[in-house]
Structure to design on (168 residues):
């Protein structure tokens, strides 16, 4: 009778051990997932993404720095400090900031001569109603040149690592 008792007890101990291992794995998996979500949704207000102290762009407009003013899961507001020479090539210039996904919209802006600051808002705008969550890794920062409403090209360009989960 003691043999049966020992066998039953060792089976119970094994089952309890197995349950503890499975629960621990589930907890760690959920914890890591939550930590990743927390990193993705943290408020990075005040972070400077682009810092450029070079003034050797000649007559081309350039961005001195890009700072995050506010960030939510579906929108980021940037404060962009830039310089544009009064002798820049004829036409208009604008600042473009966007993630490496097609699901975005940006506020319109036009650069002016001199040292200036512009607020640029980038928003999550899904291309399809079923897309409620998108991952991006890179932010593209450009100064675009137009003449007679025709796109001439980029006169300033930076790629910034910026992992983000965009949600509605």
């Amino acid at each position: 009778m003691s043999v049966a008792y020992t066998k039953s007890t060792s089976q119970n101990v094994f089952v309890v051990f197995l349950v503890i291992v499975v629960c621990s794995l589930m907890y760690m998996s959920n914890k890591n997932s939550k930590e990743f979500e927390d990193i993705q949704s943290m408020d990075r207000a005040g972070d400077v993404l682009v810092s450029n102290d070079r003034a050797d762009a000649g007559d081309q407009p350039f961005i001195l720095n890009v700072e995050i003013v506010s960030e939510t899961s579906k929108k980021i507001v940037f404060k962009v400090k830039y310089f544009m020479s009064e002798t820049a090539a004829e036409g208009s210039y604008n600042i473009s900031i966007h993630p490496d996904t097609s699901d975005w919209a940006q506020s319109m802006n036009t650069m002016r001569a001199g040292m200036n600051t512009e607020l640029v808002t980038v928003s999550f705008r899904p291309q399809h109603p079923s897309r409620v969550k998108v991952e991006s890794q890179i932010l593209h920062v450009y100064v675009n040149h137009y003449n007679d409403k025709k796109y001439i090209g980029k006169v300033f360009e930076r790629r910034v690592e910026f992992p983000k989960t965009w949600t509605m």
